[in-house]
Amino acid sequence: MSMVSATTLAEIATQLQELIAAIDRRVPQSQRTGDAAITNVAVRLRSEAVKRLREIEHEIATRES
Q1: What are phi and psi of 31, to 5 degrees?
Q2: Per-residue pLDDT of the chain (65 residues; tens, 9 = 90+)
Q3: How many Å apart are CA 16 and CA 53, to the nearest integer?
């Protein structure tokens, strides 16, 4: 990651944490058409958000040391 401030990284980390929490709160509605597909996308999105959050946390920790 190039030239992104620690403050910006912290803001992105907060937004990713909020996204992950929102996905975790979502309750699938099996009676809705297409909800299984939405659930699958949400699972993949959450996985990518967690991965990116870990990368950002590592970047912040590296800068602090």
Answers
A1: -80, -15
A2: 457 888 999 999 999 999 999 999 998 887 888 888 999 999 999 999 999 999 999 999 998 77
A3: 6
The closest alpha carbon to 6, from 64, 48, 54, belongs to 64
- The Cα 33–Cα 24 span in angstroms is 20
Q: Which two tokens stand for residue 57?
A: 């946390």
- Report the interhelical angle of 35-64 vs 6-25 (nearest 10°): 150
The 3-class secondary structure across the chain, one letter per residue, is CCCCCHHHHHHHHHHHHHHHHHHHHCCCCCCCCCHHHHHHHHHHHHHHHHHHHHHHHHHHHHHHC
